[in-house]
Amino acid sequence: MRRANFVAGALALAAVATLAGAGGQAPQQQPAVPAPAAPTESQAHAQQILRRMAAFLAGAPRFSVNVASNYDVLQVSGQKIEFGERRSLVVQRPDRLRVDTARSDGAHTSAVFTGAEMVLVDATRKVYASTAQPGGLDQAIVHFVSDLGMRFPLAMMLVSRLPAELERRVRSIDYVERSDLFGVPTHHLAARGDTVDFQVWVRDDDAHPLPLRVVLTYKDEPGQPEFRAQFSDWNLEPAITAMTFQPSIPAGAQKVLFEAQLAAARAAGQGRKP
């Protein structure tokens, strides 16, 4: 079965094309875009809840959480197959992160940002890669995803600029309902973006407005696949020790390059004169 590569697969990033006038011609006048309608009371309420959640997560100095997720992969036949994984995350701002992952096929990986370096370990294949960590958590996550080409679902939820990112990406949002399906009261919100729509269930707690479930729909992708994540065991005061952000490298593990580093090394080698 075709599945996403969680160890060293490149993340497909959507590029935004800018149209410009060609050949010295004056650019054609674009039709006026009507001003967006004023949000309804329900929409304004949903926006307020989302902003409160984003500000709370961005301002949390440390936390840990478990995430059970699954995602669709479109097969050549047109059938969508669901794969899954479990993650345990520990965040300590400004520059520490640990993510331990168990995939549905039995593979176990971990990613650790120590503040000085970023280490990715594949315990199943007994290989690991490391590189210098550029700055704090926000910069490190961008480098990990954009420069090293690593897949990191929901990485945006860990960065301190989450409120600004949501403001930039969300085109509309609606309040669906108040739900008790997760054992505590939650607000069910549905938002739309240019390429991704999402739903989020936010705990109805002004002091701790934590997300309990997220569903992403990639509406421009063939088959409109979904990514679904359930959050549990939120801890805003996790017990952090010196070992928390110490990479767990198996005995006999081989050090390798990140795929993006390997591609760059190959390109540099091809460019050298014989």
Can you give a write-up of this model?
Residues 24-43 are annotated as: Disordered. With 274 residues, the chain is of the alpha+beta class. The protein has a single domain (41-261), classed as outer membrane lipoprotein receptor (LolB), chain A (Clam), CATH 2.50.20. The chain has 4 helices and 12 strands, in the order αββββββααββββββα. A hairpin with a 3-residue loop joins β8 (186-192) and β9. It is globular and about 60 Å long. The N and C termini lie far apart (42 Å). Residues 5-30 have low confidence and may be disordered.
Helix content: 10-25%
User: How widely separated are the two ends?
Assistant: 42 Å
CATH class annotation: Mainly Beta
Total domain units: 1
Which residues form runs of ≥5 with pLDDT under 50? Answer: 5-30
Overall, the morphology is globular
- Helix/strand order, N-terminal first: HEEEEEEHHEEEEEEH
Major sheet characteristics: 12 strands, mixed
Going by helix content, strand content and strand pairing, the class is alpha+beta
Pfam families: DUF2092 (PF09865)
Signal peptide: 1-22
InterPro entries: DUF2092 (IPR019207)
Keywords: Signal
Could you write a compact summary of the structure shown?
The protein is of the alpha+beta class. The protein is built from four helices and twelve strands. Helix content is 19%, strand content 35%.
Give the secondary structure arrangement, pairings included:
Elements (H helix, E strand, L loop, with lengths): L40 H19 L2 E13 L5 E13 L3 E8 L4 E6 L3 E6 L4 E6 L4 H11 L14 H8 L2 E8 L6 E7 L3 E8 L7 E8 L7 E10 L18 E2 L3 H13 L3
Parallel strand pairs: 6-12
Antiparallel strand pairs: 1-2, 1-11, 2-3, 3-4, 4-5, 5-6, 7-8, 8-9, 9-10, 10-11
Keywords: Signal
Protein name: DUF2092 domain-containing protein
Organism: Massilia solisilvae
